[in-house]
What does this fold into?
Amino acid sequence: MRPIITAFEHSPDRGQGLARDMRVRWALEEVGQPYDVRLVSFAAMKEPAHRALHPFGQIPTYEEGDLALFESGAIVLHIAQRHAGLLPDDANARARAIAWMFAALNTVEPPILDRVIAKLVEGDKSWAEERLPLVEGRIRDRLAELSGRLGDADWLDGAFSAGDLLMVTVLRGKSRAGLLREYPNLVDYVARGEARPAFKRAFDAQLAVFTGNSPTG
Ligand SMILES: N[C@@H](CCC(=O)N[C@@H](CS)C(=O)NCC(=O)O)C(=O)O
It folds into this structure.
């Protein structure tokens, strides 16, 4: 059965591949599971029909038979648990890979998102300029810690896993590139993730929606 995911009808990031359906597409591409995409407008996301799938009126969602899921991390975990290739077989290694999934979304992504909010939403406030260095300091702390742990390894814990998939999606993007440049091993880490054929297929599929080349992934 082909799962159906939802994605933005229009790109808010001008095709950088940052919308979170990218994580789901990438996971599906890594495990070789074909999927369909239902495109939603910003208005439609807030309608009851979409909110029945996603209580917060966002993308991505994931439907597979009777199952409907929201939250990109939960969707990637579901895909990784149902298919080989994104989580190790060994129980302890699997638990550690899942810990990295949580670390990406729960520890590294929040300060990065805070910076997006500080710039885009709060940028015109009188205190915005004073706050930004504090926000960026918190990102640097996390990146320094992550960089230290990664060292010269290719991936966070052995083979590429769903933990790396989420971490790379959290770190990538033009607006993060400046801060990331201070940690060359993280720059290389993101580049390694982006060089994976499954990433490229996912990226191209999302981009194709925005450039009008293809309606589905
Ligand atoms: N924690 C959620 C966040 C979902 C999210 O923020 N989605 C964005 C797109 S990347 C969205 O739908 N934004 C539109 C809105 O919130 O109205 C996840 O990881 O799935």
Remarks:
- The pocket of glutathione is lined by residues 19-20, 45, 57-60, 71-73 (CB under 6 Å).
- The mean pLDDT is 95.
- The longest helix spans residues 91-121.
- The radius of gyration is 17 Å.
